[in-house]
Write a structure and sequence with these properties.
Keywords: Hydrolase
Number of strands: 16
Family: Belongs to the DDAH family.
Pfam family, one: DDAH_eukar
Number of helices: 8
Bound molecules: arginine
GO molecular function, one term: amino acid binding
Shape: globular
Protein name: N-dimethylarginine dimethylaminohydrolase
Length: 301
C-alpha cells in the first residue's frame, strides 16, 4: 500500500484545519507520566522492572526535566492516556520537520494505542500527517533523527523500525536518508546510541552498529567531531540527550564524558531519570520535537 498524505494544508483552510504551525523558539511536546508504568517487556531494560517504578519519583524526575527544558524552549503537553503506559516516551510517536509529522506505526501492539491520540493532537495543531504503512513498523524519533542542519535523515532498522519504511520517510521531506543497522538489542532505538549535536558534532556508541553503518557514520562526521561513548556510558543512556544550542540535557553521566562535552563547548545539565531508564528510555525519548531542527542547531563556538 502506498502513502496517504492527510492534508490539513494552508491552502484549504476550514473550521477543522488550524493554520500550519510556525515556531521561532525550539518547541517540544511532552506527556506527563501519570499512567507511566512498566506493564510489559518489549525491550531488555524493562525485564526485571515490571511494576517496580517509584511513581512519585518518576513524576518528580519528569517535572524537573520539564522545568529545565522550559528554561530554554517552549514545551507543549499532550494529555496522558490511561492504558498507554509508554506514552510518556512521546518522542517515538512521530518525527516532525517543516510542519510535516511522519507518524509512527509501532512494532509492538502494546504501543499502537498511542498512535491515535498523537495523530489527533498533531492534526488539531495544524501539522500535516504523513502516514507510514502499518506493515512497515516505524518508531518516530526513536529511529529517525535529522542531522543538526536538517539536510539529512539518519534512520535505523534491525530492531523496531523496518528498513522498507526508510524510503517512505525520505519522500516526506524529499531528503536523503542514510540507513543504519542496529545490532545490539540493548540499543533497540537509534536514539539510544546516536545523537547529532549542534556544531556538527555526533555523540554515539559505535558497537551498537554493524560495520557498514559505522563506516557511513565515520564518512559523515570527521573524527574531531565524533564523541564515541563507552559501554558504561551508553548503558546509562548517555546518547539519549536533548540538545539545544550549547545546552545538553541528559541523565546522570560519567564525569569523564561530561568533561569531554564541556571541552567542546557544551553546557551539560544532568537530571536523574532513573525511573525512566527502567522503561528503557531517558531524556530524549521523553520529548518530541515540533519546531524545525535548525532552530536548535546554533552553538556559540
Ligand atoms: N518502553 C518503551 C519502549 O520500549 C521505552 C522507549 C524508550 N526508548 C528509547 N529510545 N530510549 O518502546
Amino acid at each position: 500500500t502506498g502513502l496517504q498524505l492527510d492534508t490539513v494544508s494552508s491552502t484549504t483552510p476550514s473550521r477543522n484545519s488550524p493554520p500550519p504551525p510556525q515556531f521561532d523558539t525550539p518547541t517540544f511536546l511532552m506527556c506527563a507520566p501519570q499512567w507511566y508504568d512498566v506493564d510489559y517487556v518489549i525491550n531488555p531494560w524493562m525485564a526485571g522492572n515490571l511494576h517496580r517504578l517509584n511513581r512519585d519519583l518518576a513524576f518528580a524526575q519528569w517535572r524537573e526535566l520539564h522545568r529545565q527544558l522550559q528554561l530554554i524552549a517552549d514545551v507543549r503537553l499532550i494529555p496522558a492516556v490511561q492504558g498507554s503506559p509508554d506514552m510518556v516516551f512521546v518522542g517515538h510517536t512521530a518525527v516532525v520537520q517543516h510542519g510535516v509529522a511522519a507518524v509512527s506505526s509501532f512494532a509492538h501492539p502494546e504501543r499502537r494505542v498511542e498512535e491515535q491520540p498523537v495523530r489527533r493532537w498533531l492534526k488539531d495543531h495544524g501539522f500535516l500527517l504523513w502516514e507510514t504503512p502499518r506493515e512497515t513498523a516505524f518508531e518516530g524519533e526513536g529511529d529517525a533523527l535529522f542531522d543538526a542542519n536538517g539536510k539529512l535523515l539518519w534512520a535505523a532498522h534491525g530492531v523496531r523500525t523496518c528498513l522498507q519504511c526508510h524510503r517512505h520517510l525520505a519522500q516526506a521531506w524529499h531528503l536523503p536518508v542514510v540507513s543504519l543497522h542496529l545490532v545490539d538489542p540493548r540499543f533497540y532505538h537509534l536514539d539510544t546510541c546516536f545523537a547529532p549535536l549542534s556544531g556538527g558534532h555526533l555523540m554515539y556508541f559505535p558497537d551498537a552498529f554493524d560495520a557498514a553503518s559505522r563506516v557511513a557514520i565515520e564518512n559523515a562526521y570527521p573524527e574531531e567531531k565524533r564523541i564515541a561513548v563507552n559501554e558504561e556510558e551508553a548503558t546509562a543512556f548517555a546518547c539519549n540527550v536533548i540538545n539545544i544550542g550549547e545546552t545538553v540535557l541528559m541523565h546522570k553521566v560519567s564525569s569523564d564524558l561530561s568533561r569531554r562535552l564541556g571541552r567542546l563547548g557544551f553546557d551539560v545539565v544532568q537530571i536523574d531519570l532513573s525511573e525512566f531508564l527502567k522503561g528503557g528510555g531517558s531524556a530524549k525519548s521523553l520529548v518530541l520535537r515540533l519546531s524545525d531542527i535548525q532552530l536548535q542547531a546554533e552553538i556559540a563556538s
